[in-house]
Amino acid sequence: MTRGGWILWLPSGEHSLRLARQAEIASRVDDESARRRLWRTARAALMARDPDAIDAARRLQRELTGASMPPLASYREPEILDRLVSDLERGVAARHLVFVREPAPVVRTRVPVAAPIGPAPLPSTPPPSKELSSFTVVLVDKVGDPLDGVALTFSLGGRREQRTTDGTGTARLEDVPESFATVSFADEASVRQKLRDRWQAARGREWLDPPADMTNTVVVVRRRDALPSTSVVAAEPHRIVLQPRVVLAQFFGMWFETSKCFLLPTAMEGVRFIRSLYDSNPETDLLVVGHTDTAGDPGYNDPLSLERSKSEAAYLTDSVDKWLAWYDAAKPDAKRWGGREDAMMTEVSRFMPPRTERARATVSTPLPPSPGSAS
After folding, report:
1. Which domain holds residue 289?
2. What is the rounded (10 degree) CA torsion for 115, 119, 120, 126?
3. Is 155 part of any domain?
4. The pTM is what?
5. How many domains are there within the chain?
């Protein structure tokens, strides 16, 4: 920025682009062919995503159009960068933005002498030093709790710097000249173990809806895929939220006869869908949750819910012995399977496709007690 406002310096250093009201008439470039040539140079610097050029150009765009200025990181998106270039191009065509000739650098020569006396003179004007900045990354889990002790690798300017998150999940890289960096996990296995320990038990809280107090990136942790890196911008705090991949589906027709854990034929369409859902997500585990209706004593309903979930898991995993156990004479009469169940299985089996693969199924514990009968 200069005293007269924001300007975009061209790579040659001999011209700049600025608002017309900031420039003196005598220094403007009015030749049309020269203006076209200079605009091509400016446009090339922007399309190359030069961070300093984009930062100056977006401020010119704000002064020119009055529109709000998006975060610097958003200009990595092609549509936002194209809008920036288009706004500036229209400003140049309308002469609201002008190219200005800057004073050429002064070149001095010296005649060499046989024995120079004293040290060489310092430049009259030292080159401007690039302003240093910092990167801030906050790492949290699915409910927003910080992940501490995680080693993050910042890749920037052809080098790598490693920082570890503190008790607030924050890692900072300070006093660097770069404007952009990518952040990756230095030890992915330890991150997955830390998350696995947290995700083993229900925590009774909603998943985090990241607030807009900083830039957010939600990373879905997949079992077979490497954790992706994240692009960050200097001086703009960035929150990375690690969430497990969860597929949620709703089924209908999952009915049982009173007190029994034999799934009635009305459920077969839903069971086929469960199978296709699992086949399309082979890296996941399937959680089976049993149910009863809402009348009756929880002391009876809760064990019945678990029996039903175990029965369905046995079916999905082809565990024949677990099904045969329900024909045992030791089972209560109200729960024991017999000829009626055989007839239903025989009828349904004629319409079932062949089973070529087994599913992994996890049986859940009963849901919290609720009043209900044993239907």
Report:
1. 265-363
2. 180
3. yes
4. 0.49
5. 3
